[in-house]
Amino acid sequence: MSGISRRKLITTGLAAAAGASVLGIAARLADRYALIPPDHAGIYGAGETLTYAAQKLLMSHHSLAREFNRSEISKVFPVNGEVPENETYHRLLAHGFADWRLTVDGLVAHPLALSLAELKSFPSRNQITHQACEEGWSFIAEWSGVPLSYILNLVGVRREAKYVVFFPFDESWDSLDMSDAWHPQTFLAYGMNRQELPTPHGAPVRLRVARQLGYKSVKYLSRITVTDTLKNIGKGLGSISPEIGYSWYAGI
Ligand SMILES: Nc1nc2c(c(=O)[nH]1)N[C@H]1C(S)=C(S)[C@@H](COP(=O)(O)O)O[C@H]1N2
Ligand SMILES: [Mo]
Q: What is the pTM of this model?
């Protein structure tokens, strides 16, 4: 055995031993204080778990993403993903989304099916934020919409609720924990740069999560459901992202 491989064996062994005890304790504490993300994978997933736990502990739920001035709005707005091929989506699009409804259900007192007109009648808010894609590009845009917290109050979230899940007309479903769901900057956007939300950017309504990477901002929304577990949705990892190699928590 060469010196290098022996050293490697020893350090790997030490890391595994240290990992097993320290991370084992960390994992138990994190679980007790609800600091484990749904896509955690034991010691191998420790990086994600610790990132999520650290952000939850250090940043609390009141830290805000930076908001910009109109003069800082980008000139180019790249798109990620194709317009859904879904037949229902195209029928709704053809009629200007007059028949579109956003279903809000799950662990709520009053499930609702909201029209675009109803959403627009609620107190609206504008926010100029940065959206960064995991592929490396980003832009600053102005979004208008209604805070998710307003909708959550409207339907009456039950106390067992732990996550809010977002289903679009394509496969890109995702979820937020309750502190990110209630966060004042988390909202449902129906406008972009003071126009109707353009189709490729997620018409009629998309989620905006200013403190996480772009892929959490689910476009083309169809249904929002409140739940106490993500185990029975998809592969049980909280989102499509961990199924294709990205982490559920994408804090920036
Ligand atoms: N439904 C749906 N939402 C989605 C996507 C998608 O393909 N489908 N792409 C995501 C990714 S990876 C990013 S970076 C942003 C891009 O938003 P944009 O196209 O408005 O720039 O939307 C996110 N939301
Ligand atoms: Mo992205």
A: 0.86
**pLDDT score of 165 more than 50:** yes
Answer whether 167's CB lies under 8 Å from 223's CB.
yes
pLDDT greater at residue 86 or residue 45:
86
For the cut 60, the answer to whether the pLDDT of residue 40 exceeds it is yes
Tell me which residue has its CA closest to atom 1 in ligand 1. Answer: 219
- Number of C-alpha atoms within 13 angstroms, CB side, residue 7? 3
Write the single-letter amino acid at 187: F
Q: Give the Cβ contact number of residue 180 at 10 Å.
A: 21
Quickly count: other Cβ atoms within 10 Å of residue 150's Cβ: 16
Give 178 Cα–ligand 1 centroid separation in angstroms.
Answer: 22
* pLDDT at 55 (0 to 100): 77
CA of 231 to the centre of ligand 1 (A): 24
Q: Which domains does the chain have, with CATH numbers?
A: 3-58 (no CATH), 70-244 (3.90.420.10)
**Contact residues of ligand 1, CB 6 A cut-off:** 78-81, 133, 168, 170, 172, 201-202, 214-215, 217-220
pLDDT higher than threshold 60 for residue 161: yes
Mutational test site, ligand 1, from 93, 135, 215, 247, max ligand atoms within 8 Å of CB: 215
